[in-house]
Fold:
Amino acid sequence: MRTELSSEFDSFIRERQLPETFHELIDNYYLPLAVWLEKKRQPGCALVVGICGGQGSGKSTLTEFLRSVWLRMGLRSVGFSLDDLYLTKAEREQLARQIHPLLKTRGVPGTHDVQLGLKTIDALLAADAGSDIALPLFDKSTDDRAPCSEWPHHRGTVDILLLEGWCVGAKPWRNADVPINSLEKNEDPDGTWRNYINRQLAGSYRELFERLDLLLMLKVPDMESVLEWRRLQERKLRERTGGGMDDRALVRFVQHYERITRNLLAEMPARADCVFELGRDHRICGMRLNS
Structure:
């Protein structure tokens, strides 16, 4: 198969301006993963796969690669991001007024339209040859959901469905009483925000993640790497556009996601079906299958 797809892999790397070392990633990890997942399918049933990975971990690139390989294998796949399920700007502003101001910032559990996600997944799982299903789309440039007229569509049946996101598969934590960073200490002193997030993980998000047949984790080295990778991204943004967050704003922003990220790093590797270990250079340095 590697020989048959060689030119396609070259195009994939070139179009996305990926380094030539990506060929090693394909040979050692991504292509074997595509074959392994295909073999996990049950006849007549769509396989639902979750991909959990922090910002900069490569989950979007992995999703695109898997789908391109499966297309050549004759499989029909769909991929969408948890990011595309964000509540509208107006809905998040209402949450900020009614529950806690920090809920205006998208990203944490509680800021997604989980019912929209469930409805979309269920429609894709029930799809037949004549189905035409709209896939949610969020426009980060406007911080709002894109008009329905702009949503992409999937037509026909589905063999494999991919749901990717930074907290896909996350579980609630046991103790949210003690703040773990300055954001929680200064802006959520009584725990209203973080306890609301925890209730969402124990409720509707649990139902959403129970739709997954398999869970993959792109495991970042540590929380410090998440901050450093985002810092690098902001630096590139400033060089390109003159915009982006300064370091103080960046640290505050990342702290929104610190509690869940630390919890994921502590407990998900033991239960995820496949774990890719990432080094500080963003490259995969190991893989483990738990199923």
